[in-house]
Amino acid sequence: MIKRGLVFLICTMLIVSFSITRAEARNYNEVGDVRYFVGMMYHDAWIHSDGKTWQNNKDPFGGSLVAVHQNYVFNNIEGRKIKNVSVSAYKGTPEEHIIKSRGEVWEKYKDRSSTNVSPAVSNLQGIGGREVSFTVTVNANLNADEPLEITDEATQAIHENVEGYRTFLPILIKVELEAESNAPKTSLMSTFNNYTINRQAPKNLHTFWMYYNSDSTD
Q1: pTM as predicted
Q2: 170 φ, ψ to 5°?
């Protein structure tokens, strides 16, 4: 049987505006009928040219409370229905989740992530079908040990006192699929004529029938 991959489509939303841009993540950690994905949501904070005042008063070093939203679309192309979707904070364990779903290690994000992430799912649509969409809202404190400096990522000229820092807000997305035995299968019938049991036997005396699933490799 050919096992097709899952496609996890992510639509990134800015804090103050929605941007419907899809990116594909084809990897996941598979445990039975459950697929695990690590989502790396984040909050960017910028200090003004006075070198003292943080934009929107969100201090990335001072534990400021933030709320970040992100839209997700999960498209299951294995032909299996989606039973449920849930989201929780991800704190690096099991590390296999981030390795298999992102190809990265937790050490890269550990000191740059908030330790107080509280995610919630809303607008969940499509349960029982093969595609679901939902919104994740994360409430968190900006208390990372070492937020990632992103000053060089500024898209316009900035004052020398302006600095930017990114705090990651890791979440674990758990997608439960229907049992594989319940997945619909398409069966095909083939026949082979002009076939002999051995080289000495006359042809066309036997017809062979083969019944098989459409996703069979043989």
Answers
A1: 0.73
A2: -70, 135
Distance of alpha carbon 144 from alpha carbon 60, whole angstroms: 8
Q: What is the pLDDT of residue 116?
A: 96
Contact 68, 61 (CB under 8 A): no
In the numeric block, the tokens 């200090």 are attached to: 47
At residue 123, what are phi and psi to the nearest 5 degrees?
Answer: 55, 35
The 3-state DSSP class for residue 55 equals helix
Average pLDDT, the chain: 80
pLDDT at 199 over 80: no
Q: Could you give the strand order of the β-sheet that contains 131-141, starting from the edge strand earlier in sequence?
A: 18-25, 7-13, 65-75, 131-141, 117-125
Q: What percent of the chain has pLDDT over 70?
A: 70
For residues 109 and 113, give the distance between their C-alpha atoms in angstroms, rounded to a whole number: 6
Helix (H, G, I), strand (E, B) or coil at 95: helix
Backbone angles phi, psi at 18, to 5 degrees: -95, 135
In the numeric block, the tokens 């006075």 are attached to 50
Q: How many residues does the chain have?
A: 218
- The answer, yes or no, to whether residue 79 has pLDDT greater than 70, is yes
Give the count of beta carbons closer than 10 Å to the beta carbon of residue 82: 20
**208 DSSP β-pair partners:** 192
Q: What is the DSSP code (8-state) at residue 136?
A: E
